[in-house]
Design brief:
By secondary structure, the protein is α/β, with parallel strands linked by helices. The protein has helices spanning 39-45, 47-54, 58-79, 106-116, 170-178, 183-189, 207-213, 218-228, 244-251, 266-300, 369-386; strands spanning 2-9, 23-28, 80-90, 93-97, 100-104, 120-128, 153-160, 193-194, 234-237, 255-260, 307-308, 315-316, 329-336, 339-344. The structure holds S-adenosylmethionine. S-adenosylmethionine binds at residues 11-13, 29-31, 41, 72, 213-216, 239, 241-242, 244, 259-262, 265. S-adenosylmethionine binds next to strand 10.
Length: 387
């Protein structure tokens, strides 16, 4: 299996090179209006924004900034296939403009526009980004009233173009089943509050660049891609930044297109090819190890596990996971100045195959903890040799 990854260095408000109805999934995060780090980007495009900020007209500046993002959402709608999802990470902004403190609700304004142009809104995800900073409660006190709560979350708006995507042919159904996620992953991926994504895991670039670009965590993009697309689909990020969505798409065996207005990001994006095989290997291994640990714990607790994955031979909770395979990324090459090709193995990782081990039987009573640990450790030893 192969995937291709294309970078467009241009304004996403006119993605003429992308045909209409050609994209399966959009995963993105725009520059956040009214967050100071993005003021320059907005004032550079429209001097009226600068004037509004200087005149203390916060709401006017906010609206003008969003009017610059609206054409990108229009393009997103055009290029998305019917049944395709759009996942938009956005945070609200709190800001004092000429001594008036207010919240600027970016997620509401974006959602409003998306509904106007025909998207269907689905339940959104709250990404809880808890802060333990010592100044967390600055601006509030013990005396009522008049303080405000600390903003510790962002949104992932989830939308769809048109009705449900259909998988009708036998080959499409099989492909979908191969793209399945584990039952225990489903149980926390499909919750409407994500507490576990911290932002520092699996760094693709140095911290400074990630901060300057406001990059979202790899895990966020990777999770959304696994939830809302199947292998070989095409994922678009119109606000590509450092290329986190592209890296996640490569890892998840999806094609990708990214659009970025800043030419300076091209080199850092292309650097992804140097460490993505190692990173993807770690992700895959962690997911498979986590699954084996889950199975071990469940078996130890004497709980039933009725199914077996046909590729790896390990137990799984449901019929839907029986054909699941996480394809290993084996090669990434640069094909042009702005594109990459990734190659994947069609075979399961041999060190996770356990076709010889019988399904744990709850009837035989719970398996003792040390016995399970022994099995899992054997695998870890094998992995240590391989990596
Ligand atoms: C919040 S950052 C995205 C960060 C990205 N998710 C990552 O992980 O690196 C928004 C990006 O959109 C880019 N951008 C802003 N306006 C744009 C436009 N009209 N077209 C394309 N890119 C744009 C900015 O230069 C910035 O890199």
């Amino acid at each position: 299996m192969e995937t291709t990854h294309t970078i467009l260095i241009q304004d996403a408000a006119r993605m003429d090179k992308i045909p209409s109805d050609s994209i399966d999934l959009i995963v993105t995060s725009p520059p956040y209006p009214m967050i100071e780090m993005w003021d320059g980007l907005f004032t550079g495009q429209d001097k009226a924004v600068d004037m509004a900020l200087k005149n203390g007209e916060g709401q006017k500046a906010f609206e003008l900034m969003h009017r610059m993002l609206d054409p990108v959402w229009d393009e997103a709608f055009r290029v998305l296939k019917k049944g395709g999802f759009a996942c938009i990470n956005i945070g609200d902004a709190v800001r004092t403009i000429q001594s008036n403190f207010a919240i600027y609700s970016n997620h509401t304004r974006i959602l409003w526009h998306l509904l106007q142009i025909g998207f269907t809104a689905l339940p959104a995800i709250i990404w809880r980004k808890q802060t333990n900073a010592p100044n967390k409660f600055m601006g509030s006190g013990m005396l009522p009233a008049g303080a405000y709560v600390t903003l510790e979350h962002e949104y992932i708006l989830v939308l769809r173009k048109g009705g449900k995507r259909e998988f009708t042919k036998a080959s499409e159904k099989h492909h979908r089943r191969q793209s399945a996620i584990f039952w225990e992953e489903r149980n926390f991926y499909f919750s409407d509050i994500w507490f576990d994504i911290k932002g520092s895991r699996q760094e693709l670039h140095d911290k400074e660049l990630r901060k300057r670009s406001a990059a979202f965590p790899f895990e966020l993009a990777y999770r959304l891609i696994n939830m809302y697309s199947v292998k070989n689909d095409t994922v678009l990020d119109p606000f590509m930044g450092t290329g986190t969505t592209m890296a996640a798409a490569i890892t998840a065996a999806r094609n990708s297109i990214g659009c970025e207005i800043e030419t300076g990001f091209l080199d850092p994006i292309m650097e992804i090819k140097n460490n993505i095989i190692r990173l993807a290997g770690e992700i895959t291994e962690n997911r498979l190890n986590a699954h084996l640990s889950f199975i071990a714990e469940r078996t130890a607790a004497g709980k039933p596990i009725k199914h077996r994955n046909r590729t790896y031979g390990f137990p799984v909770m449901t019929l839907q996971e029986e054909e699941l395979i996480i394809n290993e990324l084996t090669d990434v090459t640069q094909t042009t100045k702005k594109s990459l090709r990734a190659v994947y193995s069609e075979l399961p990782q041999p060190n996770f195959c356990q076709n010889e081990v019988p399904l744990p039987s709850p009837a035989a009573g719970p398996v003792s903890e040390p016995e399970i640990k022994k099995k899992t450790n054997k695998k870890t030893d094998l992995q240590m040799k391989l990596f």
